[in-house]
Design brief:
The complex is a heterodimer of chains A (about 150) and B (about 375). By secondary structure, chain A is mainly β. Chain A is built from no helices and 9 strands. A 5-stranded mixed β-barrel of chain A has the order 5-6-7-9-8. A 3-stranded antiparallel sheet of chain A has the order 3-2-4, with no helix packed on it. In chain A, strand 2 and strand 3 form a beta hairpin. The model of chain A has no long low-confidence stretch (mean pLDDT about 90). Chain B has one domain: 3-Layer(aba) Sandwich (Peroxisomal Thiolase, Chain A, domain 1). The longest helix of chain B has 16 residues. Classes of the chains: A mainly beta (about 150), B alpha/beta (about 375). At the A-B interface, strand 5, strand 6 and strand 7 of A face helix 5 and strand 5 of B.
């Protein structure tokens, strides 16, 4: 079954999210869970910030959460050549595991409401001279949960 | 640690703004010379110095101190983002309180206009970094949106605070923004949008500037400056974040708002005072919605009452608890390193009764608050005898 070969994707900074081979699959966040008290963290850490026990274990967090707050920024998105008029969304999303994730939002101004379900995706910021897509995680309103 | 046996010997500040063609060291020298003249001493009488700036330039503090002479005094660099100047002040106060330095100097300077033009928000924030994607303005806008959701706060409340600070700045000779007309909330709301619901006039400028404070034992201050009201440092607290559930770790400006409440409570406890004893206050109003939150977190009203404080203009000059009488970060300006020392400059001018048209009547106790990078908070309390 011939499929178009997707562009190779590379993270803006390593160590924060997965890049699935299948572009249709949502990314996950690289988090930690404290073996002693069970608290979850993003990004990864070694010492638990809550109980100070050493030796957190690696876990994958997301991709779903709830929008805690949001804004619409009226200046060009970092790393992209968007006009000032376009703007972009930024929000904080609470994961069911606990951490509150601050990230860019995908969608138009007016698409967002506090408490709405969100899901994670990858956005291409730019292309490297070698043809790789530099990507970052962001959240968008979760269509699977809409009207649920 | 209770201070109290530390007093202000001198203060100086260069007017904040964009100083094209002048270097950081020139600005630092001007502020230091003003403070030394206000103190009536030269560098020979200074036992220790703490120098703060945010620009990425190692050793610049020691180079700045050479502008005043080479006397062998110990110099230490201090950097805590926006809180830098107030933390340098804290170190100087504790150096005097400990007895190791009879006279200690805190100096802050920066040229934020050049850093802003270079597209670099601060140390360690490069282009290919996950922390650099979200602007500080966006973070504070997130806080504002949540407040509006929980408390029914209107953009007009934020606009009234910004207009108040613009109008305070117009009365202050060392403020950057000195509007030639009375700024209204409508004008603030009509200015360019940055990050909903914040507009350009609700945000601080990226300034250049310098400020300096010199501290000493009260007896020495009385000897050198007899007849001048004695201003004491009662407390100076410094805290970083305490972990809370839902903590946000990634982004340029993070941290729980409760850090301001905890740090203020520590300062009040150390000084043996409460917010009801404070006559005027300064806070980190990089964005106007922050100031509204700090009314509550610093204890000047109950939770959910900050909007009422704004509506009743209780934080304007002439109100119950005037905030940011020199215009705050929004109008006096916010170069970074010297910002906290500008707060101290205005606080000392007010407590001495030398603030002219913006004088707070019978000002006796003042509070200065700053946060830095969302991850550190410092609160100082000063009082006139």
């Amino acid at each position: 079954m011939p499929e178009p070969v997707p562009r190779r994707r590379t993270p803006i900074e390593p160590g924060f999210f997965t890049i699935p081979d299948d572009p249709a699959e949502p990314p996950r966040l690289l988090g930690s869970r404290c073996r002693a008290c069970g608290e979850h963290f993003f990004p990864r850490r070694v010492v638990c910030a809550r109980c100070l026990a050493q030796g957190c274990e690696d876990v994958l967090l997301g991709p779903r959460g709830t929008l805690w707050t949001f804004t619409w920024v009226h200046v060009p998105f970092f790393g992209q050549k968007k006009s000032a008029a376009a703007g972009y969304g930024v929000g904080q999303v609470d994961l069911p595991e606990g951490p509150r994730i601050q990230a860019a939002l995908s969608g138009a101004q007016g698409d967002f409401a506090i408490g709405m379900p969100m899901t994670l995706e990858l956005e291409t910021l730019r292309e490297t001279p070698e043809g790789e897509h530099v990507v970052i995680h962001r959240f968008r309103p979760d269509p699977a949960k809409e009207g649920a | 640690m209770k201070l109290g046996d530390v007093a202000v010997l001198g203060v100086g500040q260069v007017r904040f703004g964009v100083h094209r063609g002048r270097t950081s060291l020139e600005l630092a020298r001007e502020a230091g010379v003003l403070a030394l003249a206000d103190a009536g001493i030269d560098l020979r009488s200074v036992n220790e110095a703490f120098v703060g700036y945010i620009q990425p330039a190692p050793m610049l503090g020691i180079r700045a101190m050479k502008e005043f002479g080479l006397t062998g005094l110990p110099v230490t660099h201090v950097e805590n983002a926006s809180a830098t100047g107030l933390v340098a002040f804290r170190e100087a106060a504790h150096a005097v309180a400990s007895g190791r330095a009879p006279v200690a100097l805190a100096l802050g300077f920066d040229k934020m206009s050049e850093l802003a033009r270079g597209g670099q928000a601060g140390r360690g924030i490069g282009r290919d970094s996950i922390d650099s994607v979200i602007l500080p303005a966006a973070y504070f806008a997130l806080w504002a949106t949540r407040r509006m959701h929980e408390r029914g706060t209107k953009p007009e409340h934020f606009a009234k605070i910004a207009a108040k600070n613009w109008n305070h700045g117009a009365l202050c000779p060392v403020a950057d923004r000195q509007a030639d007309h009375r700024v209204t909330a409508e004008e603030v709301l009509a200015s360019a949008k940055i990050a909903e619901p914040l507009t350009a006039m609700m945000a601080c400028p990226a300034d250049d500037g310098a400020a300096c404070a010199i501290l000493a034992a009260p007896e020495l201050v009385r000897t050198l400056r007899p007849g001048r009201p004695l201003v004491r440092v009662l407390a100076s607290a410094l805290q970083t974040e305490t972990y809370t559930p839902g903590h946000t770790f990634v982004g340029p400006v993070v941290g729980p708002a409760t850090m301001s409440r905890d740090t203020a409570q520590e300062a009040y406890r150390d000084a043996g005072l409460g917010p009801e004893d404070v006559d005027l206050a300064f806070c980190h109003d990089a964005f106007a919605n922050e100031e509204l939150e700090y009314y509550e977190l610093l204890g000047f009203c109950a939770e959910g009452e900050a909007e009422k404080l704004v509506e009743e203009e209780q934080t304007s000059l002439g109100g119950r608890i005037p905030f940011n009488t020199d215009g705050g970060l929004i109008a006096r300006g916010h170069p970074g390193g010297p910002t906290g020392l500008a707060q101290i400059h205005e606080l000392v001018v007010q407590l001495r009764g030398e603030a002219g048209r913006r004088q707070v009547e019978d000002a006796r106790v003042g509070l200065a608050h700053l946060v830095g990078g969302g991850s550190v908070c410092t609160v100082s309390l000063l009082a006139r005898d």
